[in-house]
Amino acid sequence: MIISGKPSRPYSTEKRDAKAAETRTRLVAAALDILRQSGGQALSLDAVARAVGVTRLTVYNQFGSRNGLLEAAFDAVAEQGNLAGLAKTMAIPEPRAALAWVVKTFCDFWMSNEGLGGIFAAAAVDAELSKALAARNERRRGLLGLLVDRQGIAEGQAKADIVDLLFTLTSFATFTSLRGEQRDGEAVCALLLPLCDQIFSGERRSISPAAT
């Protein structure tokens, strides 16, 4: 129907959505830069707004809260690090092969995200950031628990011990400690794979000094 003599033109939601998505991407990138370089306590909706050149309300409308911003930043890091590939873990029929896939995936993830050190360091002085990181890490613990269940070799405290050991060995802290200045990421992964497999298989032998 024509009212004014000119055909009505609907508002372009595609352009609006594209602009909003572009802004969101810029905001997340700014948040990650602040986390990696300035520490968690420097991250706020105001700081991100200033970095991108938008209003605080724009940031709030995108994320709702600082925690929402943190979650979006972690999602971006996971996407960049190809953690989406973990979804295929449970489709791998052999549990030990599935575990190897998890170990390799996290080795690649830790190796490809040099800025994570700054984020973990910031978490030491930022309770909200620390809580958000811990929640993300618990997803890894949950996945390892499912694999141990599939293996069917332990339950109760024995299962908890295996999961805790695997959780520690696949952590960023362990990866960074082993990498040091002497090994590259692939060498670290080569160390971790057989050790994780041994633990996963229920072989609780101690490692001799010669092996270290």
UniProtKB/TrEMBL annotation:
Residues 44-63 bind DNA. Pfam families: TetR_N. GO terms for molecular function: DNA-binding transcription factor activity; transcription cis-regulatory region binding. Gene3D superfamilies: Tetracycline Repressor, domain 2. This is AcrR family transcriptional regulator. The keyword Ion transport does not apply. InterPro entries: Homeodomain-like_sf (IPR009057), HTH-type_TetR-like_transc_reg (IPR050109), HTH_TetR (IPR001647).
